[in-house]
């Protein structure tokens, strides 16, 4: 359980992602999971995340008859237990959702440095206004991403 400073930190981070257009929900918040319904019709939606993040729990909240296996976070390991072991396509709200196995870690070692900023929608939108086409948003003059970070438009 979170203490009050931790709750405040979670709230602040949630607000940052929501401002970027992401739907942020807690798997135990049944009402919030209902908000997801609008994202599914006529689409294939893929849920990905760390083991124990609550992916299968969210699907069970949306459609209790699914009865997907879930487990508590391992107290000894401090992480999820890999309950989902294969990708499963689930019909949900007139679309398909892929419930995927969680991962223990994510790395970007195979990604070229120039590709990393392209993975963040807020960078992509601002980068088209940078002075240099392959701007790394580090020390280049005329960098719109850096300007927006300084202005608080892009969160750090």
Automatic annotation (TrEMBL):
Protein name: Ribosome small subunit-dependent GTPase A
PROSITE patterns, per the entry: ENGC_GTPASE
Gene Ontology MF term list: GTP binding; GTPase activity
SUPFAM superfamilies per the UniProt record, alphabetical: P-loop containing nucleoside triphosphate hydrolases (SSF52540)
Top-level taxon of the source organism: Bacteria
Pfam families per the UniProt record, alphabetical: RsgA_GTPase
InterPro entries for the chain: P-loop_NTPase, Ribosome_biogen_GTPase_RsgA, RsgA_GTPase_dom
Boundaries of every EngC GTPase domain copy: 1-104
NCBIfam families the record matches: ribosome small subunit-dependent GTPase A (TIGR00157)
């Amino acid at each position: 359980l979170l203490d009050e400073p931790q709750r405040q930190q979670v709230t602040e981070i949630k607000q940052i992602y929501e401002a970027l257009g992401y739907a942020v929900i807690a798997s135990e918040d049944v009402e919030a999971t209902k908000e997801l319904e609008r994202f599914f019709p006529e689409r294939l939606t893929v849920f990905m995340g760390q083991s124990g993040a609550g992916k299968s729990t969210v699907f069970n909240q949306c459609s209790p008859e699914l009865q997907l296996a879930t487990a508590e976070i391992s107290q000894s390991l401090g992480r999820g237990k890999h309950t989902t072991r294969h990708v499963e396509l689930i019909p949900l709200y007139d679309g398909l959702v892929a419930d995927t196995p969680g991962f223990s870690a994510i790395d970007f070692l195979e990604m070229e440095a120039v590709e990393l900023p392209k993975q963040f929608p807020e960078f992509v939108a601002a980068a088209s206004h940078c002075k240099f086409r392959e701007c790394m948003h580090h020390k280049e003059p005329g960098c719109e991403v850096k300007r927006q970070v300084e202005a608080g438009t892009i969160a750090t």
